[in-house]
Write a structure and sequence with these properties.
The protein is α/β, with parallel strands linked by helices and 250 residues long. The chain folds into two domains: 135 residues, NAD(P)-binding Rossmann-like Domain (Rossmann fold); 71 residues, ProC C-terminal domain-like fold (Orthogonal Bundle). It contains eleven helices and seven strands. The strands form two sheets. A five-stranded mixed beta sheet has the order 3-4-5-6-7. Strands 1-2 form a two-stranded parallel ribbon. Strand 1, helix 2 and strand 2 form a beta-alpha-beta unit. Belongs to the pyrroline-5-carboxylate reductase family. It comes from Natrinema versiforme JCM 10478.
């Protein structure tokens, strides 16, 4: 996720980015997309915004090495790690975010805790996609929708592409058509003032091809199965948060 954000910010051309990691291979993998690489965490003290993109179990150790001031902002993307936990370990303004890998292409969907968000953070997130400001209590469901969601969409794209191949399309052509259709439909939802139901109606001509396919979906459990996948991801996010909280209390 860290490298995806780096590549997305580089793509925007609006930011000076320094990558910090103790792993030289990790730094080498993003060297072409940053202005500077370092293994010296103290260099973070010179940044306006510091992004902590590490596994939850090492957040505490990383924060203990950071010496940040109140006029800096720290963005945490560690799943299950509360804002309270981070705030207790830094003087910086803390904002928790849950982005996704599409940040790399500027198409990220991110959830961000409403408390502490600054215009500077909004501008940064705008440069790599779309975001929604939410209450922190809703971060588990947001993690399921936009954090885990790309995998669910990849699954559906593959299902549509496979159907195209079965119908005679070449594999590459079917994948292109299915993926671009999802991309175009998603963009339409974001830009249109119509509801999703209204957009479906707009595509479904009476006695046409689309309405025949939609009748199959409406009669199926597809919507319930998607909801179940989201619920399972949300439950796991809650479990991870509880596990992290238990470790912190020990």
């Amino acid at each position: 996720m860290g490298s995806a954000l780096i590549k997305g910010l580089h793509r925007s051309g609006k930011h000076t980015v320094t990558a910090c990691d103790l792993d030289p291979d990790a730094l080498e993998s993003v060297a072409d997309y940053v202005d500077h690489t370092t293994s010296d965490v103290s260099e973070a003290s010179a940044a306006d915004v510091v992004i902590v993109a590490v596994k939850p179990d090492i957040v505490g150790a990383v924060l203990s090495d950071l010496d940040l001031s109140p006029d800096q902002t720290l963005l945490s993307i560690a799943a299950g790690v509360s804002t309270d936990y981070v705030e207790a370990r830094t003087d910086a303004n803390v904002v928790r975010i849950m982005p996704n890998l599409a940040a790399e292409t500027g198409d990220m969907a991110a959830a961000v805790t409403a408390d502490g968000v600054t215009d500077e953070v909004r501008e940064l997130l705008d440069d790599v996609g779309e975001f929604a400001e939410i209450d922190e209590a809703k971060m588990d469901i947001a993690t399921a929708v936009n954090g885990s969601g790309p995998a669910f969409v990849f699954y559906l794209i593959q299902a549509m592409a496979d159907a195209g191949v079965e119908g005679g399309l070449e594999e590459d052509d079917a994948e292109t058509l299915a993926a671009q259709t999802f991309k175009g439909a998603a963009e339409t939802v974001l830009r249109s003032e119509q509801s999703v139901d209204e957009l479906i109606d707009a595509v479904c001509s009476p006695n046409g091809t689309t309405i025949e396919g939609m009748e199959v979906l409406w009669d199926s459990d597809a919507d319930a199965d998607v909801a179940a996948a989201v619920a399972a991801a949300e439950e796991r996010s809650e479990e991870l948060a509880a596990e992290f909280g238990s470790e912190d209390d020990e």
